[in-house]
Amino acid sequence: MGDGMSVLLRTVKAISLMFVSTELFAAAQMDLTPGVTAISQEVYELHTLILWICVIIGAGVFGMIFISMFKHRKSKGAVAANFHDNMTVEVLWTVIPFLILIGMAIPAAKTLIRMETPADDAEVTIKITGYQWKWNYDYMHEGFDFFSNLAKSSRDVIYAENNKDREGINYLLDVDNRMVLPAGKKVRFLMTSNDVIHSWWIPAFAVKKDAIPGYINEAWTIVPEPGVYRGQCAELCGKDHGFMPIVVEVKSAEDYAAWVSEKKGAAMTAAAGDNKVWTKDELMAKGEQVYAQCASCHMADGSGIPAAGFPALKGSAIATGPVAAHLDMVINGSKVNPAMAAFGYMSDSDLAAVITYERNAFGNNTGDAVQPADVKAARQ
Amino acid sequence: MSEDHHDHKPTGIGRWLFSTNHKDIGTMYLWFSFLMLFIGGGMAMIIRAELYQPGMQLIEPDFFNQMTTLHGLIMVFGVIMPAFVGFANWLVPMMIGAPDMALPRMNNMSFWILPFAFGTLISTLFMEGSAPNFGWTFYAPLSTTYGPASTDYFIFGVHLMGISSIMGSINVIVTILNMRAPGMTLMKMPIFVWTWLITAFLLIAVMPVLAGVVTMMLTDRNFGTSFFEASGGGDPVMFQHVFWFFGHPEVYIMILPSFGIISQIIPTFSRKKLFGYSSMVYATSSIAILSFIVWAHHMYTVGMPLAGELFFMLATMLIAVPTGVKVFNWTATMWRGSLTFETPMMFAIAFIILFTIGGFSGLMMSITPVDFQYHDTYFIVAHFHYVLVTGALFAIFAGAYYWLPKWTGNMYDETLGKIHFWISLVSVNVLFFPMHFLGLAGMPRRIPDYALQFTDFNQMASIGAFVFGGIQLLFLYIVIKCIRGGEKATDRVWEGAEGLEFEQLPSPAPFHSFTEAPEVK
User: A87, A150, A215, B175: which one has the fewest Cβ atoms less than 10 Å from its Cβ?
Assistant: First the structure.
């Protein structure tokens, strides 16, 4: 944008600050975030420009209405004039708005073209897959992926009565595993979904793109400085749409490299876990962690929400009956209840652990210990 | 009046069940809409009560989704649209000098479908499992592969609503094109009639598209097709294209008749002719035509090609031009008039200002790169409630106060009307204005629980909602009081009123009016 426009924007920003920084709402954010990337700054400037064009036009039109209301009232003896047509003003108030719109469209198109230019020169590519109700981040060229769920600290206090319990934990904006990005490098995101449509959004990057089953959408960003940035799923995706936050941690190049090698090591350990025989205690301990993903419907105590179509696991026919039926239900999903998705995408050891947990927790006490090998066999 | 001896009404329940009288059917539409306003509004109260503070207090997330879904569907299809059809029934024949609607039996049927349509929709709340819980836009595959069993009842209900709307609009078009009094050329018709004529064409064009999309859903869900199921070769994005090809004209269906009502009221209380009558007609037509080529601005984030995003951005921005023309025309009508401020005028002026605020936020979100930030946030929720509540609903209030004396023969209670106006005006802004801030600060829409930094504005909005919801009970009281009695209205009702219904009919308008066509000069 030219010099004239940035002067205008600075003035506009100064005026808007006078309105915004009143004490009453000192704590609450009222305006769009300028964000931390070059693109998000441009978007913010466009937003501010258009907002103020609207404010100025609005002030003019509403001003005319208020003048009429006070000056041209019958009680002050106003007599109605007779005019009801005027070609000149009709043409003017058609043409002038049209020109203003062109003035808005040009910078908007420029920014849009920059945003939509494919990031073929990206140094990192991450495939983002939406699930009900979590995200999977696949670092495609590094050979590992992981799920990112709502943090337990938030989930535990959703039903808490005292609001104080929700303070200091980034309530609903924190996850168990953050996406990690290198600072200053171009990162390409590929979005898709495993079930319904989700939308991946980080306001500070001005990146929002739908994750759609059967589609691979693309977006990119360059975040100059390390930091932690938060967002939420932006497309209604079912019951826990409000409970699938997004947290991105941007690290320096060295810290990022260290994080990648640590993740690679962990991926190897997990793969090894699929090939060993676990003790029941190991399965139960791991199963309790994995069960956090099931708890959003079946509840932490296995009681479910039967009224809403989410059955209890406590004493249920599946969780206390034959193991084969239980494996089939978790791996392939329910044939009758669409709310029970197929979880076959999880690793053999995770599935073995969570099924073992469900068969022994909540007083189910079947004594079964399902092994990763059993899961592998059930997949065939 | 010579019509008096025709004025024998059928009695009992049969008068309403078998009615072919445009006034009785109009009355039934308006009462139906009013009932739905309280049902849909009750759902809004539940939503705002849950959102009063962070955490889940009153309801479960799935029930929250059922509430937002049914609230949207009921307000759109059960309140705003039937209210306008009620106005059309009452007013179109009286405004064009016709004895009744052209197709009176179809008129009866198109009304009586509605209670069944909404009975079906609302009955899903009492079914096992869940009521529709996928938002009023029912995006696939959330509504198809993942929809609850009750979705099929929802589909049936939508089909019924569509049939009702199509029959209603055929009736409006046939009436307007064939039954105008001698001398009433198209360009002499009252603007309300013009806006309804254009609305009816929009309805006929897009209601079948809605029927098509729900039929595709039905076969996807029950007969093994894969229109929207990616794993069967279908396309979930196509759902959105088809839905919004209906959905965008639909939003104009909900606002054009309000433009008509406001264009009747502003000149009356300004005691001055409507400024730029013909440009109003052309602007309304332009808006209607443009409404067919802007649908994808609801879906900028689905990953359209750049060329598509640019096209829909530019086409959408263009709509600001004819909409601006309308606002400027109303302003020019008031300019140097002789204004008085009865309740209809108060609501009409509030409409112009608040609808324009909704229009401004609409212009802001036409800008694709910026809309990426606004999309699916409370900024959108603020926008469409400004155009639909302080827009369409305020126009309905304005119109009700404006024509109630003509319909009932009695003046409404002006003091109570003013109280209704001022409390509505303040509370509706306390309710919806903070939503702009919430959306800009990053709060997504359709979430039952939120991060702590959104608490203050949500509490403000909830308090506004409770007041705004509660004060509508006063409106109910005002309407009943007006029907039962009150100061007798003159035939012209308002000093500056023009048009056949005020100039040539008594108050109340007789059961059968214009059995002989009036002369229009």
Answer: A87
